[in-house]
Each structure stands twice: as structure tokens, then as C-alpha cells.
Amino acid sequence: MISSRVKAFMMAGSLRFLLLSLWVLLGLLVTEIGGSHLKPVLSGPSEAYMRSEVQFDCAVPGWSSPLTYELRKDAGDLIAAENNVKVSFSLQVTEGSEGKYYCRLSAGGPTSNTIHFQAVVPVLGARLTSDPDPPMVYEGQNLVLRCLVRKGTHLSFIWYHNKQEVNSSSELYRLSGDTLTVDGVSEMHAGTYSCTAQNQMTVNPRFSSSRNVHVIVKKHISAPTLSFTVFSNGSSLTANISCRSTRGSPPVTFSVLLDGLELDVKRVDSLESWFVLPVSVGVDMGAARCKAQTDTQQLMSDPVRLHVVPVGGAVRVTVTYLHDAGGTMTAAQLKCIPDRGTFPMFSWRLNHSSLPPEGDAHMVIRHGQILILTDISAGFYRCWARDSFNDSSVWVESEDIFIQKSDLPATRMEVIALVFCGFLLIVIIGGSIFMFWRIERGNNTCKHHRNQDVIKSEMIAMDIPVAVSSEPQPVEINTVIMEFEA
Q1: pLDDT tens digit string along 408-460?
Q2: Which domain of life is it from (predicted)?
Q3: Which residue range forms the structural domain that includes residue 372?
Q4: Residues 6+ apart with CB under 8 A from 131
Q5: 187, 218, 249 - which closes a domain
Q6: pLDDT digits over 247-260, tens only?
Q7: Of 403, 431, 464, which residue constitutes the final position of a domain?
């Protein structure tokens, strides 16, 4: 009886101890769950392409018992919940998938770190646009290129000029997002441009490249110049007028004006245009000018009198001797100058024999006006001139001029300089001596004049009359005693 009571009492104590132990364990568990020791950690991607599947994992490091985890987004929107030691949440990426994700233990437990997730649209359909369009600009103007895509997000851009990647730090371009800007283009900016757009993805980035765009940089034209030649057309004479710019980019519209009246207009794909106009010998047709015009410019040439003067009057020849570095005569240049004539042609004679345009010892330039003797042959030279446009015009000729090669070397500049310096030194020395002589002579003259003044003063003093008095005047006698040694 007693033993049964003892056993019952012992069993009751064991039960109370077991219940107390469970209560303590449950208290510890609740403490740990509600404390900071159970902070979950969320892991997963920060970016993914649209329509792909991503996975986020949530777990408490070092915890081996199942817990209930909740995956939440932005302001606390519940995405999914799952109970396990470590849970994984799978998501299908859509446009609404972007945001900030975190996981939390159930019943208001602690929250994990945050992952900012981006839903990336794959890039597709890159193309280039230009301003101006078409991409044809003049020097100094601005050029703007944009790299547009049909679709795609989170993009970066790479630019190419003539197949070379454009450096973002280059001073020739300004890069900003999908735009390339050139401030004040020059010739070096001409060529082909393209761009490549790519998704900013750490893994598996996608690309889309545009087609090439050819940029043309046009030069501004220079002011045109007008010149003309004439040719005979049977019984009449025609002027062939040239309007020409030395630089620029065609096309150019040229027009010719006579005394301000526009006569003809031509648009050409070059920098020169020709116009024809009837003229008469000896008649001043007026002032002719050229006008050159492009999309951005309109320039005029200087006026040129459209006056064809026949060759006539006296003809003279000027001679210039050419020397080498040692001062030895090596060549002679003869120039034929008629008094008048707009379009002369020339012919040369040596000892009354015609000289061909070219030879072993001579050559002619400037339409025959200048004869250069490379090996001087002594003799009499003469120039003939007439109108180039009229084969029946009369030749006018110069007088004979004798040319002979001299064996004496020309006076060198060093010798001339030395002689000049010596002459200058003599002048300076002579001038100094002359000035010194003039100064000395002036001093002597001054002394002579002063002496004469003293003498005259003494003479004037001696001539002063002495007043005569009837009263006796006392006389002062000075006695001087002189001693001499024997």
C-alpha cells in the first residue's frame, strides 16, 4: 500500500519535471524566434530578362529547424510563403516584376536584406538618326546622331567612326546616353558612323548594331574669280568666260553678270563653269562679274573689264641675269613687253633666226612672253608680238638687244656689305675729326675775342681824361729796398 503511494508520488513528480522542462524549452524557442539570432538572408539575381524564370532563396544561417518564410516586395506585398529550413521562391519575370524584394519570418518576425530587381527587355532593332537629315553638313555646323532601338531597357551604347570605336573622353565628340554630338564639324568628322546598343547585364548581355550612316562634310566655297579668253568664230569674236572657286564642295550655281545685269546661270557639280559672250575688238563691253551660290553662301567676284585691246605700240625687252651661289652667271631671262594688247602671242629671234619654243639651251614660258637662256649664246635677240586670236594680225617687233655671257662673277652681297661698312666707318671717322676741329676752332676764336676785349678795355681806361686842379696834390712815394747776394 505504501509502495504504491510512493510510486504514484514519484510518477507525479516526474511528470511535473517533464512539463517544466518542455515549458522552459518552448520559452527558449520563442525567445530565439523573436530575437535577433534568427535574421533571415535573401539571395537571388538583381536582373533578368523578361519572360525568364528566376529563383530567390531565403534561410537563417546556422538554423536547422523548419521555419515559415514570406517573400515580400516593395511596401510589403506578399508574393509567396513557405515552411522549411531553407526555402526557394520561383518567379516568372514580367514588366511588373521590378522592385525591391525581401523575405520575413512569419508572425511579424525579422526581415532579411533587400534585393533591387530589374526586369530587362532584350535590345532589338538599333538604328541611327541624324540632325540634319540627310547627314550633310557644312564646316562649322553642328551634327547630332542618335542611336534608337525598337525595344530594350537598361541600355548602354558604343559608337564607331570609320569602324574605330569612339573614345568617350575624345574632344572631337560629346557622348551622352544614346546621343553623339559634334560641335562645329570639320573634314575629320566626315565618314561612316554606326552604333551598338547593349543590355547592361552582368551575364549574357545582348547586342544590337545599327547600319552605317555616311556623314558628308561640305566645305564653304571661296570667292569666285573671273577670267576670259577669246577665239575667232569666222567673222565674229567670242569671249569664253570662266567663273571659278578655288575651294569648296559642289554643286555650285554660277551666274555671269555684265554691268549688274545677269546674263546666264548654270548649276554644276564642279568648282568652275564657262560662259560664252560675243565681243568686238577695241570695244569695252562693260564690267563682268561672277556670282557663286550654294545652300548657305552667295559670293561675288571682283569686276573685270570685258575689253579686248589689240596688240600695238612699241615692244621692249627686259633682261635679268641669274647667278648661282658663287656669283657666276648661269642664265638670262628675257621678257617681251608690248605697249598694249589683251591677248598677245610671242615669237623670239636670235640673229634674225627664229627660236623654237624649246631647245637644249633655252625655253619659253608664259605663252612665250619669257625666254630663259640656260646656256647663254652671245648674239642679238629680238621679240615679236601679235594678237593670238587673229592669224592675220600684223607682227610688231622690238629692237635687237645684245646678250653676252660675262666671265666675271657678280659682286657678292658679302663684298657689297663689306665695302658699305668701310665707307660708313670712314664717314664716321671723318665726321668726328671735322666736328672736333670745328669745336677747337670755336674755342680759339672765343679766346681771341676775349683778349681783344681786354685790350680794348685797357685802352678805353687809358683814354679817360684826368681832372686838372689848381691846388697842389699830395704825391705818395713808395720806397722799395732790394737785396742781392754777392
Answers
A1: 444 555 556 777 788 888 988 888 888 878 787 766 655 555 544 433 444 33
A2: Eukaryota
A3: 312-403
A4: 143, 144, 145, 146
A5: 218
A6: 999 999 999 999 99
A7: 403
